Each structure stands twice: as structure tokens, then as C-alpha cells.
């Protein structure tokens, strides 16, 4: 592997996935993978090379299915394009998993992200404060994505209670207080990375530079907190914006989801 950004991502982010619980979650190790419990659905993550193939890989997959089936819980197995063995996606599909949309993993040194001018005079960008802001963000998510508003609110409030300032939520708000766009910055514990997550913008406010402004606002916060790199799993509409800001595409990631009958 010669790409230094991808090498840093593997050494830091992917190692942290296996060993460091995010606020509100717990880790359950089943080598070579780790189960992440406590989110709206379960997760299974592994190293770039699982080190098991054929029937042993099928058995590993089956153990995860039986574990989450006993909990009546859907779960996601997160893969990257360079993961080994190469037939992992085929074996997940054969075990009843469904692929969701592939995203591009992009990374940028924090120092290359330039400050952004306010997108317009009728909105402000700031960090969310207090329960009222978090509930406004949950309502935004429900409006934009059709999410379960109550579940999103519970997740945000749980993170706020348990987080030690590793997560900040940034909002674009009108003067009357309505949140029209929002996104999270999450420092990856024990690493020099910070992740950009959870972006949502009301349809009437798209095309106004809010996404770019939120990226720059979060980059400034990441810099003050000592992060060296920003990482994003981006859908196709976001990728060109991020690349113009200085992000580099290093791989793709595809979630495979198993859901109880």
C-alpha cells in the first residue's frame, strides 16, 4: 500500500473501529471482527484482511447473523473495496445481506481546508447547544431522510450525555431558530483523525453553499482540537464538492445489511 492517506486511515481509523467504543456504544469482540452495540442498528467491522476464507468465513458470518437474530436486531457489515478476502461481499449476499449505496472514502489534511464565508446574511453557522437544538436536528433528519425522529433524538441525546467533547454538532439556523442544515464532527479517539458525518439540508436551502460552509466550520473546530486529518464517507453528490475543497478519494465503502424476517 503506497497511498500515505490510506495507510494512515488503516493504521488509525480502522484500528480504532476495532478497539475504541464511540459514546453510547459497547464493543463485543469475535476475532477477527468486532460487533458494535448500542446504535440504532448493530455493526460489524473488521481489519482490511480478515485472515479467514471459505467455510471458515461462512462460519464467521453465520455467527454474526445468529448473534443479532437472537437480539431481533438488524446490523450492518461495513466493507471497503480493498478488503480481503475479495469474495466477502458475495458471501454476505449469499447469507442474506443486502448492499446499500456505495460511498467514497475521502481524506484531507485539516490544514488544506480554507475558511468559508457565511453562505448568506439570513442564516448563521454555529455549534448546537442544548437539548432543544438536538431535537431540531432530529426533526430535520426526519424531514430530509424520513428517519424515525424519536430514535434520532434518543441517539443524539445519548451521545451528548456520554461524550467527552469528542463530538460536536454544527447547524445552519435561521434567525427565528429553525435549523435548515446540520452535520456532526467526531474526533476518532486515540487518533489524529476527525470524521464528518450526518449532513442534512432542507431541499429549499440546497445549492446555497451550506454544505461547503459546514465542512469549513467543522474543519476549523477540528484544527483547534488537534486533529490532523478529516475523513468523510461521501455519497455521489458530495464527492465533487469535497474534492474541490482539497479532499482525496482513497477507496470506497459499501455497507451490507442483514435484517430480521
Structure, described:
- The chain has 261 residues and is an alpha+beta fold.
- It folds into two domains: 4-102 and 254-258, no CATH class; 109-252, 3-Layer(aba) Sandwich (Aminopeptidase), CATH 3.40.630.
- Helices cover 36% and strands 30% of the residues.
- The protein contains seven helices and twelve strands.
- It has helices at 4-19, 54-71, 88-94, 130-145, 149-162, 210-224, 239-245; strands spanning 26-30, 33-37, 42-45, 75-80, 98-99, 103-109, 123-127, 167-174, 179-187, 193-201, 229-234, 248-258.
- Strands 1, 2, 3, 4, 5, 6, 7, 8, 9, 10, 11 and 12 form a twelve-stranded mixed β-sheet that branches.
- β9 and β10 (193-201) form a beta hairpin.
- The longest helix has 18 residues, at 54-71.
- It is globular, with a radius of gyration of 19 Å.
- The mean pLDDT is 92.
